[in-house]
């Protein structure tokens, strides 16, 4: 049973977002937060009666911000805003992304800085707890003013319009709300804007990506250790004093992991004597593993810092300030989040690239130091893991394309009122694809390195890498004649994504 996540008492943590978005945790609303919501709503209602125009309360939106809207037309204004902005197209985004959208917008609504009525906050919480997930489309957001189209699809569902998923089944939003005894919202002044002005989509995807990337970077250290060991590389270059000469934090962490993973390896011990091993230096893909993996770790740390600041933010326009003013602002611009999404895509591509190079070395008899070509059972008859490397190379090529920044592009919109946009949603979508690709490249390296370790018998690998190999062998058979390879790669990928690989490495108490 997953504990409920309290919304409104303090900023949500990354773990809170993953729990609700991915694992279906319920939410609870903080009572003090709801009191703040009611107080800020009273301010908005006062402005609604003011004959002076106030943006989003008594005016149109975007390029129509100078158009005054009469009181009797304002509810229609809010409804029209949501309907017109729910203009997404393409495939549905993943359920966890839509739930992250719902949760992060709920957090902003519960801040008391948006001016919505308490019932709006309560409706969003009730939808999450009932498992009502709005259908959100792949395309439509420019990342400024926030993720307008995706958030409008969420808002539309709260109005009882559009489609939602309940238990995976596609149903009309109105029917889903009725079945859960949730009254469809009827929006009043300012509320439509408050539901759609935010960076919630790109932030939600950043938080999910960071959660997954932490697992993958640990896994990359495991797969690298298996490759270094099976290719008769040295661990001397990972010594703590050498790492201290360049005090990059992530590099030190990865090097420490490699030292622990390779400890007590009979394979490593077999070639420590200079009379046995005449190689002066390993190739970069082996020797520079901590430098590359460490840089990716540091990049993830920077992205996590930006994400933590965004989680502590109230993003709306206009916003109700702490002293009761209602002010226009530009905090909805997604640049801070978009930049780090693009930065992570670069790191993901490079970690996958060095992994693929280690895999390729294991398959090449000119560089593998005694292993058979492509680790084949019967060379010439069998192709071994030749095409697994092709798959890794194809993915790495795709990841390099996905590493091209989205945030450097900007296409003006809304009659040049929104003349510079972040493209943060697009940056997040391509990062999600990149994370999946990295997991598959690492799985291919693990399958390759495990077979290479088998072929080093009777020499024994380190206890930690041996534990990983044995966990893999529960779903992927060892060396032998060629067989249907795709199921092996899919099974290995499942172990990577689930964290089973790093848990197996921890069984011997040598890796954390």
Automatic annotation (TrEMBL):
Protein name (record): Histidine ammonia-lyase
EC numbers, comma separated: 4.3.1.3
Catalytic activity: L-histidine = trans-urocanate + NH4(+)
InterPro entries: Aromatic_Lyase (IPR001106), Fumarase/histidase_N (IPR024083), HutH (IPR005921), L-Aspartase-like (IPR008948), Phe/His_NH3-lyase_AS (IPR022313)
Protein's UniProt keywords contain NADP: no
PANTHER family attached to this UniProt entry: HISTIDINE AMMONIA-LYASE (PTHR10362)
UniProt similarity note: Belongs to the PAL/histidase family.
Annotated metabolic or biological route of this protein: Amino-acid degradation; L-histidine degradation into L-glutamate; N-formimidoyl-L-glutamate from L-histidine: step 1/3
Keyword Lyase: yes
Pfam short name (any one): Lyase_aromatic
